[in-house]
Every structure is written in C-alpha cells, then in structure tokens.
Amino acid sequence: MTKRPFDLPVALQRISAAVQPYPRAAMFALADQGYKSLFEQLVGCIISIRTLDEVSLPASLRLLNAARTPLEISQLTAQQIQSLIEPCSFAERKAGQIQAIAEQVVTHYQSDLPCDEQLLLSFNGVGVKCAHLALGLGCGMPAISVDSHVHRITNRWGLAATRTPEETTLALEKSVPKPEWIRLNELLVPFGKHICTPLRPRCSACPVLEMCQQVGVSAPR
Ligand code: SF4
Question: Which of 106, 140, 152, 220 lies at 20 to 30 Å from 115 by C-alpha?
C-alpha cells in the first residue's frame, strides 16, 4: 500500500473516535472522578507504575478516598498506605515513596505542591513519565508523557525512531505541536491496549493504516 504522509491532527481525530468504546487511561479516569490536583495525579501515577489500569485505578481511589491531601497522607503510616494500594506492584516501596513525598510537601511547601518539573523529578519514585503526566493533568502545562504504548506506537508510525521512552519524549517534543502533547498519552494508551497492541496489532481495522509506516510490524492482524 502506498502511504500518505503522516498527518497527526487527522490521526488523533480518528483515534479519538476509535477508542470511544474503551475505558479511559487510568490518570485521565482519576481526573474525571475529581482527583486532578498535581499532588493527587502524582500519587496516582506512582501507584500506576508497572501496574495494570484495572488494578491501579481502584487502588488510587482507595487511597485518595481515605486521604487525599499531603497532610492527610503524611498522617498515615507507610503500612496503612501499603494496605490501601495493594495489590498494585511494588506496593511496599510505593507506599514509602508516597508518604515521603507527602511529608516533604507539608514540611517545605505548606502542603501546596508547586508545578515544578525539576522538583517532581527530585522525588524518589518519580520519573519523567509521571512528572509530565501530573504536570499536564494537574497544572495544565504542555507535557508529553511517554509510556510503553506511546513509545511503541509513535515508532511504528515513523514519527520517532528511538530506542527508549526518554529518547521518544525528546523526539516528540520537537515534532508534535504543544496543544497535542497531553492528548498523545490520553489517546494512545487505550489505542495501544486495544488496536495497536504490542503483539499482532490490528492493522486491518486501524483508522490510520493509510499513513502509518508500520515500522517493525511483522505479524499484523
Ligand atoms: S497500522 Fe498497525 S502498526 Fe500502524 S498504528 Fe495502526 S495498528 Fe498500529
């Protein structure tokens, strides 16, 4: 098939329609339920690391329903946080990290976490993916959050030619207009779970087949 040049606005419009039947990505679902402060989003993203959305979203809601402010979380023990966020992966480690962040925010920032990328990245347990997602959703800042879905799909498209999510973040920041940055994660997470899957992507049913270079795709459905 002759491919037309990749048109990102058109692609995102079509993908937005294609993912309507599927659940929203966990952090966006958390925001939909009213947990959209920077601190709440950061906590939710830490809980979501290496954990399925189906597990991490209920875990985040259990914790945030019990304690949602930095002060309230700092008053829980690490064991209490752990029991609320289980069975997410690395629950013990994440509980300690969440409690330490809450204590720092209370002690140094009067319980008001600033929208500061370098500060977020200085916290134990917070990487670029979570910092950007929290800043995008919690602060409305332009930020690209590259998880395994965004990394895989944008490389298949030919929009990035990178080996790691960190390299993909830098590549996409150069080529994608800022208004689309946060939407990449919002749309490509459900798209990657249900259509452009890691193994045997559903290319025959894909709304962007005509413009996707299908880089590295050897066994499409
Ligand atoms: S055509 Fe295939 S590889 Fe390309 S985005 Fe669609 S499902 Fe993914």
Answer: 152
